[in-house]
Amino acid sequence: VQLVESGGGLVQPGGSLRLSCVASERIVGIHVIAWFREVPGKAREMVGTIDSDGNAVYADSVKGRFALSRDNLYRTVYLQMNSLKPEDTAVYYCEYAGIWGQGTQVTVSS
What we know:
The protein has strands spanning 3-6, 9-11, 17-23, 33-38, 45-50, 56-58, 66-71, 76-81, 90-96, 99-100, 104-108. By secondary structure, the chain is mostly beta strands.
């Protein structure tokens, strides 16, 4: 399985971005997919997970601002990020069973 993230970029505080994680095999809607983020010098932080039933769990730091969704047909998990803050700046990764994508950079700055 390979995972490819996309959708990162530079956004102003209060803005929105939608990240995508495309899997090379049919795992979306079958297994738990997670999103993490990493800032240099800090431990990788779990942002949220989405299970086979579409149930999502979020870190307290993003609850109410971020939302996970999935498209089983296109083997994609989305991370909608709203009301972005400078502290959301990080490289965002999706993960499945210990397999990681290459990450996508999100920078929140004015």
